[in-house]
Amino acid sequence: MLGNFFDSFAEFWDLYVQSMRETGIMVVYSLVISAAIGLLLGIVLVVTRPGHIYANPIVYQVMNIIINVLRSLPFIILMVAIIPFTKWVVGTTIGVKGAIVPLVVYTAPYLARLLESALLEVDRGVIEAFQSMGATHRQIITRVLLREARPSLVLGLTIGTISLVGASAMAGVVGAGGLGDVAIRYGYQRWEPNVMITCVLLLILWVQIVQSLGTAIAKRLRKR
């Protein structure tokens, strides 16, 4: 049985390499865009809440509702629901390019919540101390909130990246490419159990690498 597994691995080696590359492209591009949007949304959610430096109940409540609505949608439903938007943005709804838009729309609100929680961990006493020394609101955001929350921000991004890897695999159901596409087309539709097992193992490897790297970076930042 083990011999059959290695034979299957060798037979589909080129396919695995290609699918890993496609998964990597989807994850990296989606993560960069989602992290930028999520961090911005997370900052807005923190600083506009009652009692904070840019307190604005209307902005906070509107942002809160929008993010909650987007987070409540399963990825498969979201991906189908925004097909016209995806087509308008990138000109296609299939392949790696067609998967990036729904991945960003799905991941950005999730990251916003994670990064919001990380920023809320910053001691209000530290913020008040900087305010008493005449720090501007921009300085409080850049030199206090973002600086003090760095370890938690990294861990939040790590969790978001792992979720993104899982979503990229689900995107394979609609022909987005990557490991999910290989698992569906070869592992399931052609009933190649060894292909399915290999795709699962490769996804697990992705998650382990991301988690270990994120934990190591956060640990190093805490020591500074």
UniProtKB/TrEMBL annotation:
Q: Which SUPFAM superfamilies match?
A: MetI-like
Q: What are the entry keywords?
A: Cell membrane, Membrane, Transmembrane, Transmembrane helix, Transport
Subcellular localization: Cell membrane
CDD domains (UniProt xref) = TM_PBP2
List, alphabetically, the PROSITE patterns matched.
Answer: ABC_TM1 (PS50928)
Per UniProt, what is the membrane topology? Answer: Multi-pass membrane protein
Pfam families from the entry? BPD_transp_1
What InterPro entries does this protein's entry cite? AA_ABC_Transporter_Permease, MetI-like, MetI-like_sf
> Got a GO cellular component term for this one?
plasma membrane
Instruction: Give the matching Gene3D superfamilies.
Output: MetI-like
Q: Name its GO BP terms in alphabetical order.
A: D-methionine transmembrane transport
Residue ranges of domain ABC transmembrane type-1 in the record: 20-214
Membrane-crossing ranges are 25-47, 59-82, 88-108, 153-175, 195-218
Query: What PANTHER family does this protein map onto?
Result: ABC TRANSPORTER PERMEASE, TRANSPORTER, PERMEASE PROTEIN, PUTATIVE-RELATED
Homology family: Belongs to the binding-protein-dependent transport system permease family. CysTW subfamily.
- What name does UniProt use for this protein? ABC transporter permease
**Species name for this entry?**
Cohnella lubricantis
